[in-house]
Design a protein that fits this description.
- Helix 2 runs parallel beside helix 3.
- Helices cover about 25% and strands about 20% of the residues.
- The chain has eleven helices and 14 strands.
- With about 375 residues, the protein is α/β, with parallel strands linked by helices.
- Bound molecules: S-adenosylmethionine.
- S-adenosylmethionine (SAM) binds next to strand 5, strand 7 and helix 11.
Length: about 375
């Protein structure tokens, strides 16, 4: 046992059964979540499993691309599984796999099943965020592996616009995959659209009608956030939450349900009274941030722990893990990182200035994992 009363894992190669991951039974996990200095409990871990993507979204990825992660820097499945199990023992109850594009990682179905096996030991929910391009072929295996929910990204219904935004084709396939996901047995399917002024702000009602009118799909509109190299406020401009709401209300009636995690949720109706089956969500990270209730932490594809999407702070867990660190040492690093978490993220303009700072090396969204 280590100083925290956690069974210590051996660091050499081993069979990844529950006992070797230090897991015993549901409820054995020490935590109510990992707490920061402001009393926020972190029960939601987002793991990026790859930096590569099969799209080139202009709002996510710098034009010049991102350097390929040196071979060996990417966490192996065993390493991801070990860290996921440690986080679950520390109180994480929800894990989301993201990227890059998670479905581009070879063997992703196997990874989902491995993490799905943490469910009897405290993990309550396993989700994925994906652009859905490769989703259809994976649906049965992902469901069988224990994936509960998918958030699928689509910013436009128009193929020509899709190409302008993502620099690739695939609009029709994405739409078909979203529809297939809706009947695949997930307990939640959401569509994420990043809204940019003059790019897709005229399609908000169309997106809602396409997915949320007849199907129990939640359509969520996300304020465009600044990241390294994404020309926020210059070539691409934010369309703020208030304007999103107003644009939707030109044609629909919205009834507030409340704040759920990061999204303000609404029930929608056509003006003639016809109710939407799915809900509408608006994510206002920039103009109405929800930092006070943030419960999220992140693990990058190269094994760095991050405590805030919009803060450059991060701590390397991969090097110590590969050097043989036990769980107590990794837990210490995680808790040290969390102590640096600020009460809220900086305003958008400050973030942009930070990214433009001389010699600054930040991570683009694609390298953090959205
Ligand atoms: N490739 C996957 C996908 O497309 O969903 C997962 C990774 S992607 C980085 C995760 C989410 O982040 C997507 O919904 C994407 O639209 C969103 N995203 C990327 N850049 C963003 C930005 N600058 N502002 C707001 N959301 C962004």
């Amino acid at each position: 046992m280590d100083a925290f009363g956690l069974p210590v894992l051996s660091s050499g190669p081993r069979a990844l059964d529950a006992a070797s991951l230090g897991l015993t039974a549901r409820g054995d996990a020490r935590g109510q979540g990992l707490f920061d200095r402001f009393g926020r409990s972190h029960t939601y871990l987002r793991i990026s499993i790859i930096e590569k993507c099969n799209l080139r979204c202009r709002y996510c990825m710098p034009e010049e691309g991102v350097p390929l992660l040196p071979k060996g820097d990417l966490l192996s499945f065993e390493e991801i599984e070990r860290l996921a199990a440690l986080f679950v023992r520390l109180g994480v109850r929800k894990i989301r796999l993201t990227g890059g594009e998670p479905l581009v990682r070879r063997g992703v179905d196997d990874l989902v099943a491995r993490i799905g096996r943490l469910k009897p030991y405290g993990l309550q929910r396993l989700a994925m965020t994906s652009n859905a391009l490769l989703l259809r072929q994976h649906l049965p295996a992902l469901r069988a592996g224990g994936l509960d929910a998918v958030n699928l990204s689509l910013d436009t219904l128009r193929p020509d616009r899709f190409r302008e935004i993502t620099l690739r084709d695939g609009c029709e396939e994405t739409i078909a995959a979203i529809r297939a996901a809706a009947t695949a047995g997930f307990d939640s399917v959401k569509v994420n659209a990043v809204v940019m002024a003059g790019v897709n702000d005229d399609e908000l009602v169309d997106l809602a009608r396409a997915f949320a009118l007849d199907e129990p799909i939640e359509v969520r509109y996300i304020e465009y956030m600044p990241f390294e190299g994404n020309h926020w406020g210059e070539r691409l401009r934010m369309f703020p939450a208030e304007a999103i709401r107003a644009r939707l209300e030109e044609q629909l009636s919205l009834e507030t349900i409340g704040l759920e995690e990061t999204a303000r949720i609404y029930r929608a109706r056509e003006k003639n009274g016809r109710a939407f089956r799915g809900r509408i969500g608006i994510i206002s990270s920039m103009t109405e941030p929800f930092c006070a209730t943030c419960n999220r932490i992140r693990l990058t594809a190269d094994g760095h722990f991050r405590w805030c999407l919009l803060d450059e702070g991060e701590i390397d867990l991969r090097a110590p893990m590969r050097a043989g660190a036990g769980d107590a040492e990794l837990t210490q690093l995680i808790e040290d990182g969390l102590r640096a978490k600020k009460p809220g993220h900086a305003p958008a303009e400050e973030l942009v200035a930070l990214h433009q700072g001389a010699g600054h090396f930040g991570r683009s969204m694609i390298r953090i994992g959205g």
